[in-house]
Amino acid sequence: MKVTKLKSLLIKIFKKKGLNHSDALISSKALINAEMVGAYGHGLSRLKMYCDRISKKVINPKPKIKVKKISPSISYIDADDSIGFVAADIGIKKAIDNAKKTGIALVAVKNSGHYGLSGYYAEQAVKKNLIAMIYTNAPPAVAPHGALKSLFGTNPICFGCPTGSKIPFILDTSISMINRGKIRVAARNNQKIPEGVALDKHGKPTTDSKKALEGVQLPIAGYRGSGLAWMVDILSGVLTGGNHSGKVKDPFDDFSGPQNIGHLFIVFKANLFSSNFNNRIRENIKIIKNLPKIKGVKKITYPGENKFYRYIKNAKKNIIINNNIKQDINELLK
Fewer Cβ atoms within 10 Å of its own Cβ: the N or the C terminal residue of the chain? Predict the structure, then answer.
């Protein structure tokens, strides 16, 4: 399907659910971006979930979002249970605006929901020659190190910075071995997941995606990954006034109330300390790319580089939509 046609259909669906045109456009563009970069677990596979939550009145389609100015650099946003895309769009734009004026910005968001890819928002800051650090928490999926029960989300960590070229450095990674969206897509398509990424509800290793959703996802680097998940829970949950400590509701299965996810945006000018940042980052990347390579590796790439090329490649083609998602779209258009 052509991108323009898909965007039109998504806007129509979101407006049918009560979003105004601007918010529907913001949400549609974020979902399409996820498809374009190959992050299918954060793309159209989640469309029905967002619409279901609006229908169940746990996402507010007409929020009265409040932005509180704490200082010229610091803002606090109450998203009023809006769809996460809209809350995050306001958050990153406010952070960019504050950083351009003062050099550095800290923006916290509470009462939001799942907002898709963190890297999508970091890219917006990088395009303005800013560095971004972004944190958001998620529903329980990972057990704290030494615990028997899932509590932390897959809590992504995101860092973005300019590179002196058109390809930004975007590190956007969950603290789990694979993100939960990939497991959900695999479960819906009756596919297995790799070994070593999840345990079933009995604590045994599994490659069954459905059993993995009922069990525990494994963090990267053992206790270190668990520690990073805890850090994100503090920064995006405790600090912002959002839910934390396992209280973020699963967006697919728990309609008992809003998620109240927290987001934290830290954005600052790349040239705060050195006026020739672009030259220095180019030198940094060049040195690393020219290192001797291990057998089988043709090219050393930095985070975000492959995703950039995937986007360029996919922009020349139609978006492929599988039968499950086609069915979702058709049902939502009725």
Answer: C
Alpha helix (H) residue ranges in the chain: 3-16, 21-36, 47-55, 84-102, 118-126, 180-188, 209-214, 223-233, 277-289, 305-315, 323-333
In this structure, what token pair is assigned to residue 305? Answer: 């580089």
Measured between alpha carbons, how far is 91 from 310 in angstroms, rounded to an integer? 27
Percentages of the chain per state (helix, strand, coil), in multiples of 5: 40, 15, 40
Classify residue 23 by its DSSP letter: H
- Distance, in Å, from the CA atom of 76 to the CA atom of 273, rounded to the nearest integer, reads 26
Extract the tokens encoding 72. Answer: 């010229």
- Report the percent of the chain where pLDDT is more than 90: 90
Task: Give the closest residue to 84 by CA, choosing from 38, 34, 133, 129.
Answer: 34
181: confidence class by pLDDT, cuts 50, 70, 90? confident
Please state, in angstroms and rounded to a whole number, the distance separating the CA atoms of residues 301 and 169. 10
Report the C-alpha gap between 332 and 45 in whole angstroms.
Answer: 13
Domain spans of the chain? 62-269
Taking phi over 0 as left and psi of -120 to 50 as alpha, with beta for the rest, 263 belongs to beta
Whether domain 62-269 has CATH 3.40.50.300: the reply is: no
Could you tell me which residues are beta bridge partners of residue 78? Answer: 66, 110
pLDDT at 65: 98
Tokens 């071995």 sit at which residue?
A: 177
What is the distance between the alpha carbons of residues 64 and 60, in angstroms, rounded to a whole number?
A: 9
Whether the Cβ atoms of residue 133 and residue 161 lie closer than 8 Å to each other: no
Q: C-alpha distances in angstroms, 172 versus 4, 44, 136, 193, 304?
A: 27, 19, 11, 21, 8
Residue 238 gets which letter from DSSP? I
Two structure tokens written together for 83: 């769809």
User: What is the per-residue pLDDT across 292-304, written as a single tens digit (0 to 9) for each?
Assistant: 999 999 999 999 9
Residue 25 pLDDT class (50, 70, 90 cuts)? very high
